[in-house]
Amino acid sequence: MADYAALAARIAALTEGETDAVALMATLACELHHADDRFDWTGFYRVVAPGMLKVGPYQGGHGCLVIPFARGVCGACARTGEAQIVPDVDAFPGHIACSSSTRSEIVLPVHDAAGRLIAVLDIDSDRPGAFDAADATALAAILAATFSRPGVS
Ligand code: SME
Questions:
Q1: Contact 102, 40 (CB under 8 A)
Q2: Which residues form ligand 1's pocket by a CB distance below 6 Å?
Q3: What distance in Å separates the CA atoms of residue 66 and residue 133, rounded to the nearest whole number?
Q4: CA-CA distances (angstroms) from residue 71 to 7, 62, 64, 77, 153?
Q5: Could you report the per-residue pLDDT of 42-53, keeping only the tens digit for each?
Q6: How much distance in Å is there from the Cα of 148 to the middle of ligand 1?
Q7: β-strand pairing of 117-125 with 104-111
Q8: What pTM value is reported for the model?
Q9: Which of 84, 119, 134, 141 is the right S-S partner for 110, CB 3.0 to 4.6 Å?
């Protein structure tokens, strides 16, 4: 498991004073992806229109470009505003398979300071059952610290 405390401290230091959402997403995608062997695809899908996500900064293989809120694990997260932990992607109705090696994933909502949903963070793993509630809690804290700062857009 990643050393989330060290990761949170490093991300806070690297992004201090930054409010550009894409710059923040790019930095998080890189730092998170390289911090944990479980993470095979790490990136953001941004809310670009009502009910519509479009790919943002990511690390890993090709990610599909557009995901409607109605589809996939990312869509379920965007629709409900709730973190999604999927231990077996084959058992998730409507899962979007961008890589056949993906076995499990976690998707978290990203809110700005006003509480608006601006994106989701999607982390995919080639291992089954890679993620649990402790990952969700630690990742949500990093997202809140990064994107809830005043002026992020
Ligand atoms: N995990 C996603 C899609 C995979 S990506 O394009 C990397 C989903 O089903 O929402």
A1: yes
A2: 41, 63-64, 67, 72-74, 95-96, 98, 105, 122, 124
A3: 27
A4: 31, 18, 12, 10, 25
A5: 999 999 999 999
A6: 24
A7: antiparallel
A8: 0.96
A9: 119
